[in-house]
Amino acid sequence: MKLAPLFVASVIAAPLGAQDPPMRIDVEQVRPRIHVFSGFTNGNVLVLESSDGLLLVDAQSGKRVGSLDSAITKLSARPVRWVVNTHYHEDHTAGNAVFRARGARVLAHRNLAIQAAKDTTITDRNWHRTPLAADAMPTDAFDDRREITLGSDRVVVLHPRNAHTDGDAMIWIPGANVLHIGDILEVDAPPFIDWWAGGTLDGMLAAIDDVLTWTNDSTAIVPGHGPVSSRAGLRRYREMMATVRDRVKTGLAAGVPVDSLAGSAVAGYEQMLGGARRARQLVPQVAYGLRRP
Question: Angle between the 201-214 and 231-253 helix axes, to the nearest 10 degrees?
Fold first, then answer.
């Protein structure tokens, strides 16, 4: 069952810095006082409005946070009290600096700061990981679970082990039946498994299995990227990832080259993964992980 949004609007937001061009921010109300802000390719930002101020889940990139900030200001004049990061990737964390400068606390799993501080080149992917700016780093850390009370709202922050990264957080708002699951789920796009920061495909599946045990058919599940989903959508996504993994594993065992596996391994899931070309991008990722010691 696909959840019907209560409200969807688009805002052309003016950025904080003159060097950043305006962009469109889509705003979706999923519950009273809970909105999801999305735009460009940066991560979905959940905003919870309480009597004590705002709680944000993720903060977009440094380039796009100005547009996010302008769009949030149109929604509420209340200050941002908390930002909770789902993982270390820059499109979810660099915007922390704007809200930290105004006094917000930034909460993340303890491993996030470790990964975010690295300056390394991943030769397997030709990826240079640059450190997150010091003023965007978390101010607060947790290990397995942390609860935040903001006004009348209780927010539960949970750590799934070695899922998208080794420092993921899932943010559960039980009173509203809303979960932000981060990049463990991407809708209409292939997932990215950050093997280089402790992520694993099996860990992502385990996190999803856990979520499926305590959510229900009315739960709004906010992905790291893409439209708000549901428990049924998450279940289909889990089936897709497990099926692709098994197909790739079987093909590799039979000596089939990865390039030759790309089409057959994702057959039937192309639409779910954003089209045939993008769907094929998942196969080398899965094969890389299966070949790792």
Answer: 150
